[in-house]
């Protein structure tokens, strides 16, 4: 059984989202980064080494991608999003 998030190594409740077992924080961060373009890292992609683990969206997105997370094509379908809102 998998206990740690494949992206940030946090222990806790995990979900199988975007083809990876991850925590809800990484799932939501990756989802937002896919919908709204992620900004580049201001620290030359070294935030995890500098102790700024969760401050930089660019580094977190890169770690999600390196862990194997891939966006769901339906996520970008405007009709699917509108239908989901209507319930």
UniProtKB/TrEMBL annotation:
Taxonomic source organism: Caenorhabditis briggsae
The protein's matches in Gene3D superfamilies, at most eight in alphabetical order, are given as:
Erythroid Transcription Factor GATA-1, subunit A
**SUPFAM superfamilies in UniProt:** Glucocorticoid receptor-like (DNA-binding domain)
Q: Where is the Nuclear receptor domain?
A: 2-76
Protein name as catalogued: Nuclear receptor domain-containing protein
Which one of the record's GO molecular function terms can you name? sequence-specific DNA binding
Instruction: Note the PROSITE patterns from the entry.
Output: NUCLEAR_REC_DBD_2, ZF_PHD_1
Keyword line: DNA-binding, Metal-binding, Nucleus, Receptor, Transcription, Transcription regulation, Zinc, Zinc-finger
Q: Name one Pfam family in it.
A: zf-C4
Give the superkingdom in one word: Eukaryota
């Amino acid at each position: 059984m998998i206990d740690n998030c494949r992206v940030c190594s946090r222990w806790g409740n995990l979900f199988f989202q975007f083809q990876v077992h991850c925590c809800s924080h990484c799932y939501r961060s990756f989802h937002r980064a896919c919908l709204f373009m992620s900004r580049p890292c201001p620290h030359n992609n070294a935030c995890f080494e500098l102790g700024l683990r969760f401050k930089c969206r660019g580094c977190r997105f890169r770690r999600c991608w390196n862990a194997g997370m891939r966006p769901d094509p339906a996520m970008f379908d405007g009709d699917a999003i509108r239908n989901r809102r209507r319930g």
